[in-house]
Amino acid sequence: MSKIFLTGASGNVGRPTLSELLKRGCEVTALVHKNSDIEGCRKIEGKISSAARYADEVASADAVIHLASTRSMDRKKVVKEDILGTGLLLDNWRKGNFVYMSSTCVYGIPCGPLTEQHPVCVPMYWYDIGKMCGESQLAMEPARPGRGVGISLRMALLFGPGRGKQFLEDVYANCLGGTIFAFETEEAMETAGASFVGPADLARAIADSLELKSAGAYNISSGFCTWRDLIETICRKSGLKPKIDLVSGLPRGARYRRLPQSRSYVDASLFSSLTGFTPEQGLDELVEAFIRGQS
C-alpha cells in the first residue's frame, strides 16, 4: 500500500483525486483547511506555508500530490502560499514522485494545437505567475537517491461541479438568465473554444502519474469543444433556447456575454502514450452531471 501526502484534498480537483487514490488502495494523509468534511484519509489541519505541521509527513510519504492553490490574483497570497508553500513541500520531499497540479494557463491564449514544447506565455495574472513558478521550482529540483521524478500536470479547463466560481457555473447561469453570447466573426462562432477535462478523468490521470519515470510537464485533457457546442449542449439539456449572435463590439442596453474569441486546443497525447491513459468523460456526460448537481 502506497502512502500519499495530498494537498488540496477538499477542493474541486482534490475530492475526486482522493476518491481515486482510496479506490486504488492508497493510504492518504491530507493537508486540509480547518473543519474540512472529507473522509477516508488522515487529516492534518494547516496551510501550505505552515511547514512545521507537515514536514515529517511529507518526508515519510511514498509520493506527494500537490493540488492546493489559492486561485488568487493577489500578489501576497500567491507568493506566500502558492510559491513559497510549494518550495516548502519540495524541501521535505524524500520518496516517490512529486505531482504538481499546474494549468494550461501557462500557455496564455494562443491558437494551438499546444504541445508541451510550446513556449509558456508572458503571464497576465498572479495566478499564472504562481503556476509558472511552481513548475520552475519542480524542474530545478536536483535528483536525490530514493526520490522519483517531478511531474507538472497542465490540466485543461475543468468541467465539473465545484465550490466557488467555476467556468461551467458562469456559462450555465448566463444561459438561464437569457444572456446573448456574442461572437465577433463567423469564424469565431464556429471555431473558438478550449480543451476541457472531467474531474474523474483528471483524478485518474493524477493517480497514473505516480508511476511515470520521466520528469517534466504533461498536458491533461478529456477533449475539445467550441463555445457554441458548450452553450447549445447546456441549453438542450436544460430545455432552453440558445441565444448566440454576431456582434461587433458590445452595445449598451443589451445583455451580452463575450467568451474568448480564440481556440485553445492542447495535445495530451504524450501523457497517454507513456501511461496508457484514455479519457472517458465526454461533453454531454459532463454537462448533464453538472446540471444535475445544480438541482
Characterise the protein shown here.
The protein has 295 residues and is an alpha/beta fold. It has a domain at 3-160 and 197-222 and 264-280: 3-Layer(aba) Sandwich (Rossmann fold). It contains ten helices and 14 strands. The protein has helices spanning 14-23, 55-60, 75-92, 126-140, 167-176, 186-191, 199-208, 227-238, 269-275, 283-294, and strands at 3-7, 27-32, 42-45, 63-66, 96-103, 147-155, 157-158, 180-183, 193-197, 216-220, 223-226, 244-246, 256-257, 263-264. The strands form three sheets. The chain has a seven-stranded parallel sheet with strand order 3-2-1-4-5-6-10, with helices on both faces. Strands 7, 9, 11 and 14 form a four-stranded mixed sheet that branches. A three-stranded parallel sheet has the order 12-8-13. The protein is globular, with a radius of gyration of 20 Å. The two termini are 38 Å apart.
Concise summary:
The protein has 295 residues and is of the alpha/beta class.
Low-pLDDT stretches: none
CATH structural architecture of the domain at 3-160 and 197-222 and 264-280:
3-Layer(aba) Sandwich
Per DSSP, what share of the residues sits in E-state strands of 2 or more residues?
Answer: 15-25%
CATH hierarchy class name of the domain at 3-160 and 197-222 and 264-280: Alpha Beta
Overall, the morphology is: globular
| CATH fold description of the domain at 3-160 and 197-222 and 264-280 | Rossmann fold
